[in-house]
Structure formats: C-alpha cells, structure tokens
Amino acid sequence: MLSKTATDGGGRGTRRLWLVGLLLHALAVTAAAGPALTVATGGRTAIYTSAGLLALPAATTVTIPADIAYGRSMTFRAIPFATLLEGAAPDDSIRFVAADGFAATLPAAALLAREGGAVAYLAVEPGDAPWPPLKAGQPGSAGPFYLVWLHPEKGAISPEQWPYQIVRIEAVASLAKRFPMIAPAVKLAAGHPIRAGFAAFQKHCIVCHTLNGGGDATLGPDLNVPYNPTEYMRPDALRRLIRDPQALHRWPAAKMPAFDSKALSDRELAELVAYLRHMADRKVAPPVAK
What we know:
The structure is a single chain. The chain is α+β, with helices and mostly antiparallel strands. It folds into two domains: 36-172, Sulfite Oxidase, Chain A, domain 2 (Alpha-Beta Complex); 177-279, Sandwich (Immunoglobulin-like). It has helices at 2-33, 50-54, 108-112, 175-178, 193-204, 229-232, 235-243, 266-279; strands at 36-41, 44-49, 60-64, 74-80, 93-98, 103-107, 119-124, 145-150, 166-172.
C-alpha cells in the first residue's frame, strides 16, 4: 500500500511538472511571437502577429510626410488597410480600440478606398526595428499597430482618425445606433447646425470622451453628466479650451490635443458648441452607485 501511494504521488507530481512545463512553453512561444492584433469583420475573427502581417504579400513601405503621432516625416512597413477588412461592407462602421483606452469609430468606406483619395494603411512595428518614442509625455512608440494615411487631406482625415497602439479592430453598428443617448432631438431638420455639430462630436470628441454615459472611450470625462461644459464655462473660454487646452489647463500629463482651424474650422467649432449646449437639456441620469 505504501509503495502504491508513493507511486501514485510521484505520477501526479510528474504530471503537474509536465503541465507547468507545457504552460511555460506556451507562454514563451506567445511572447516570442510578439504583440497580437485582433481583427473582427464580416463575421470572422483573425488574430495577427507583427511578424505574420509583415510576411503578407501585400506588405509594402509607405512614407508619411506629416505623420500625426510623430509630427514629422516617417517611413513604415505597412499593409493596405483594405486587405484586412475581408467581408466588410462600405456602410459598416469600424472601431479601433487602443491600449490606453482611446477608441475611434471610422466609416468602412474610407478605410476600403485604394486610390484617388485618402488611402489607409496599417503600419506595423517590426520586432527587430522598434519605432522611436512618441512625443514628450507619452509612453512608448505608436506601435505595434498604427493606422496611417496617405493623402489625408483628400479625405478630410482628422488627427483623431490616426489611432495608434491598436489592440483590436472590429466592425460595429454606428455610434448613434449603439449609443442613442448621444443623439440630438429627432425633430431637428437634417441640415440643422446642431446635427452638423453632432457629426463633429463623433469625429473629434467621442474618441476620448463619453456623453450621457454613451461611448467606447475611457480617456476623458463625460461631457454631459453631471455637467455639460457649456453649463460652467463661458462660450469664449470653451472655444479657447478646444483650440488650445493648455491655455486654460496647463499640466505635463495632459492628453487632449489642440484643434486648430485646419483640424476644426470656425464653423465646425460653432456647430460643436451648439450641439453641446443642446445636449445640456437632454441629460440621462447617471447610474446609482452601489
């Protein structure tokens, strides 16, 4: 009996050691493979590594004369974005989720374009040739996966439509469908300035903020609950904050970018402020803390 017990215990111990070894091997293989990107579109989900993407026949070299993340000309190895959106329809919305909580939703039609206008590429950071660090105050590089654009001026591509440090890309319903609490009053006419302001909000603001609790991002505060900025800031101060956040709130770790007139025209800024003022009267009660 003693001999049998000793033998069983040794067997279990050997099996535990084998399982631990298998787990450590799996972890080592995963680490060696490098960072992974999940792409879920057209009813399918694929997981890519940097090496796997760079080995694709479509991989190419692109030079971005005025890169948004680095503020200078940058050259990347990249994949034409249209090759990653298998099964996506032009009227889909594509959500990009970054490691820091930034979340941008872009129209698939813009990402599927291959020529004649702004063309999207997924820049991939090679494991053996890391990119330089981002601007001062931002950790790490723009990698391992970064959405860049050739000829962005041809598609009115804004700085918020260059997500970097991407971890997941997925087809989703439009922001208005997923978060009806961010929409203005239905009675407003299609061409009303407040609706134009709502479009500006979706393009420039919801990538970092929520409104009435609606939105994917977690970087910035909610812009309506408990208070809308139009309720505690003078219109001129709010416009100045949007144009140059550091002019009103200066601190080294600030992440909100400045929106100059090229990124956000005076007309768009006025429409955006009108939308925010409109939404101050359309608050959704915050959830009760438990």
